[in-house]
Design a protein that fits this description.
Strand order of the largest sheet: 3-24-23-22
Distance between the termini: 28 Å
CATH class: Mainly Beta
CATH superfamily: Glycosyl hydrolase domain, family 43
Number of helices: 3
Strand content: over 45%
Length: 351
């Protein structure tokens, strides 16, 4: 097969002929009210969906109290569980499954960025958390930190750089969830400072490919890199790979899956003004997908209006047998933060 290669945006881009490219941006449908998941007293964010043995759809998402401001995602976020009859909603809150574990733990403060996966007969809930090291603190100090935000000394010196990715495991979607004593990996190679935004998939080689975000090493601006680490187990140990997934464009919030039919990994991410999609045949070297920009920062509504978010982040593709069913994203508009679930029409070309 002929191929032309170039280096662009930190990825090795290889133009190849695909026999069955994944294209679904032209099948994204307008939003209705049932596709919007809001809560009166909480900001909702970070969606991840799995179909349960009960035939229902289970959403794991992060939420935090509005009374402490939007910045309290780093101090008071928790991971909650909601259920629906359809992956596009409407969703009904069931329970909170993970919260801050408290002093003396790596995940002492906040629980955020959930990704739910089932490998074998076990459910794995990946998440991020942080801590203030050995420093004593009070609940009042955490609330003050949230209200001040980025400029608070706790934020800059401890809470942001101490963020790490971990996992909790359970034999049922209803728990109980068992946490690990240590995070899954430390920043190294293509990333520095922190490991957040976990996304994981199992390849056809049986190995587990974990993508995380960190700061770009030695960067004088504010560029965040995506990196991939490999393991023979969903709980690690993970070995960081030297090649970045994306390294000279500021991106966040990867979600990844392996398409066994197409024999490719796919990943979606946000780049501030759009949702992008990349692909890989080996999980390590990534290129633009056939359709790279899958969603602009504007969402058509079924009533003919257009939703223009202030922020559109945390993309997640719920798919079955390689076919996307829903594209979910976190939306911030004014002082509201909620999750939208964009339905994807069935591919008319599939039997």
């Amino acid at each position: 097969m002929g191929a032309a290669a170039c280096i662009l945006m930190g990825m090795r881009l290889v133009a190849q002929t695909e026999t069955d490219p994944l294209v679904f941006n032209d099948r994204l449908q307008p939003l209705t009210e049932k596709n919007i998941f809001k809560s009166a007293d909480y900001y909702n964010w970070c969606s991840s969906i799995v179909k349960g043995e009960d035939g229902k759809y289970h959403l794991f998402y992060s939420r935090w109290p509005k009374k402490y401001t939007f910045f309290s995602w780093l101090t008071h976020s928790e991971i909650a569980h909601a259920v629906a009859e359809s992956p596009s909603g409407p969703w009904e809150y069931q329970e909170t499954v993970l919260q801050s574990r408290g002093k003396g733990h790596w995940d002492a403060i906040t629980a955020h960025n959930p990704k739910i996966k089932k490998f074998g007969d076990i459910y794995y809930l990946y998440y991020i958390s942080t801590n203030l090291g050995d420093n004593a603190y009070t609940e009042e100090e955490l609330i003050e930190t949230a209200r001040v935000g980025y400029s608070h000394p706790n934020w800059k010196a401890h809470l942001r750089p101490n963020q790490r990715t971990g996992v909790a495991v359970a034999s049922s979607l209803n728990g109980p969830w068992t946490r690990m004593d240590q995070p899954l990996l430390e920043p190294s190679g293509p990333i520095s400072t922190l490991t957040v935004n976990p996304a994981i998939a199992q390849g056809d080689d049986g190995r587990y490919y974990l993508i995380v975000k960190g700061d770009k090493p030695n960067d004088t601006g504010f560029v965040r890199n995506q990196a991939v680490a490999l393991s023979d187990s969903p709980t690690g140990p993970f070995e960081m790979q030297p090649t970045a997934v994306i390294d000279d464009m500021d991106t966040e919030d990867m979600s990844v899956w392996y398409d066994a039919g197409r024999r490719r990994f796919y990943g979606v991410f946000h780049a501030h003004h759009f949702i992008g999609m990349i692909q890989s045949t080996d999980g390590i070297n990534w290129s633009k997908a056939s359709v790279y920009e899958i969603q602009k920062k504007q969402l058509p509504m079924a009533d003919g209006t257009t939703l223009l978010p202030d922020r559109m982040e945390r993309p997640f593709v719920y798919q079955e047998a390689g076919e996307p069913k829903v594209l979910s994203m976190a939306i911030k508009k004014g002082d509201e933060a909620y999750i939208v679930f964009v339905p994807v029409l069935e591919d008319p070309g599939k039997p």
